[in-house]
Amino acid sequence: MLWVLGLAYLIGSVPNSFLLTRLFDGRDIRHIGSRNAGATNVTLHVGWLPGALTFLGDMGKGYLAASIGSLSSVPLVKYLSPAFAIAGHNWPVWLRFRGGGGLATLIGGSLALAQLPMIAVGMALWGLAYLLFRDHDRSAVLACLLLPLGVLAAHSSSQTLTFAATSSFAVALKRLQAIKEKVRRTL
Asked: Which of 128, 129, 102, 107 is closest to 119 using CA atoms?
């Protein structure tokens, strides 16, 4: 069981944004724009093609981790694997634990686990929060905090709730770090 979760972390830690930015632009994405090693920063500061490839690659990490987790004899591993991939994406060992925000990886894990309603609810929550805050990170934190409550209210299985809670926690924690970093830079 533990080796599957470790593998999920390593899959998540593949730094697509870093590699694609180096390939297309020659720079380190962690020194450009928001300094976030994620698809949004790549799209805004390197280009739509490397941004789209980063997004697809990051989604693929979540999908692959959940798919490998589903092969485990322990059913819960299937629902924990995407959270470990998100942790790998957010805090990759290869980039000194400075990675992306985890949303694309969360979407990929959700697709692998056939959690399409969860994706729709999460996007709706993020959209409403964005109308309120006009800030990507704060909107993601609020959506991630509310998503497990929505899953609970929908009377979903305990495994789905585990997936929603652990994955949302990993994304929210990274976004809180980003907010703290923004505040630090403005002072």
From this structure: 107
Q: Looking at this protein, which amino acid is placed at residue 148?
A: P
Cα 104–109–110 angle (5° rounding)?
A: 95
Query: Is residue 105 a contact partner of residue 89, using CB atoms and an 8 Å limit?
Result: yes
Q: Looking up tokens 């929060």, which residue turns up?
A: 129
Q: What residues have CB less than 8 Å from 30, skipping those under 6 apart?
A: 18, 36, 37, 95, 98
Rounded to the nearest angstrom, the gap between the alpha carbon of residue 22 and the centroid of all alpha carbons in its chain is 21
Residues 61 and 14 sit within 8 Å (Cβ to Cβ): yes
Residue 46 neighbours by CB under 8 Å, 6+ apart: 20, 21, 24, 25, 27, 29, 32
What pLDDT sits at residue 1? 78
102 to 45, 71, 83, 85, 173: CA distances (angstroms): 19, 23, 9, 9, 10
Q: Which two tokens stand for residue 154?
A: 């929908």
Q: How far is 17 from 28, CA to CA, in rounded Å?
A: 9
Residue 96 CB partners (closer than 8 Å, separation 6+) = none
In tens, the pLDDT along 119-177 reads 888 889 899 999 999 988 899 999 999 988 888 887 778 888 898 899 999 999 999 98
